[in-house]
Amino acid sequence: MFRVPVYTPARRDVLRLGLLAAALPHQAFAAAAPLKIATIGAGRMGSALGSLFVKAGHPVMFSTRHPAELKDMVAGLGSLAQAGTVAEAVKYGDVIVLLVPYGAMPELAKEHGAALAAKALVLDVSNPIVPRDGEVGAKAREEGAGTFLAKLMPGARIVRAFNAIGAGNLASAANRAPERTGVPLAGDDQSALTLASTLVREIGFDPVVIGSLAVGRHLIPGTPIGGEHTAADLRKIAATLK
Length: 242
Description:
Strand order of the largest sheet: 3-2-1-4-5-6-7-8
Mean pLDDT: 87
Shape: globular
Radius of gyration: 16 Å
Order of helices and strands: EHEHEHEHEHHEHEHEH
CATH topology: Rossmann fold
Distance between the termini: 37 Å
CATH class: Alpha Beta
CATH architecture: 3-Layer(aba) Sandwich
Number of helices: 9
Largest sheet: 8 strands, mixed
CATH superfamily: NAD(P)-binding Rossmann-like Domain
Number of strands: 8
Oligomer: single chain
Number of domains: 1
């Protein structure tokens, strides 16, 4: 059984919004319509990113092996937030956000691959780290994280995003003025890229599509495109990628 990280931040006051839960077909994305978002993993990045989606008005289910441990976090986020198991989250979400170690991806794909292929968007925020993920991490690095994941989850509409912004900097990087922080995206499915771009804008960033999932191998810390950049700078860097 794969493991998902758990992080329980201090209770905070967050604007409470009414729950609007309506599943949308893949072909009909209303720009301002709330989507049910499920995070697979509720560690530091899952908590930070999921909180931004809640603030933008989307109902979010944070999932972990021990959802009861997320009680304080979801209570602090208000009525749009809830916690559940991984199976519950996969069933719940129109959009699935992957935030588990790459070593867990094969088991996740085995258990939930068919369900993930039916989702409007699978947002891959994870990175393969060889010392942690072993042979799976090494293979994902060699093939490119996005390409590797697409082979594991045939039919899934995968977009890589938020792979090189630290969890601790995510909140401060959102809605930055005078120029927003850019978020590079990589994917093969145009409808998924469009939806991902909309969600990125809604939580306070400028989306920059840098290319296909194959180009997504650059979306890891330590590459020229990693870190925090404006959208204009990201486009310049992306133009140099091969």
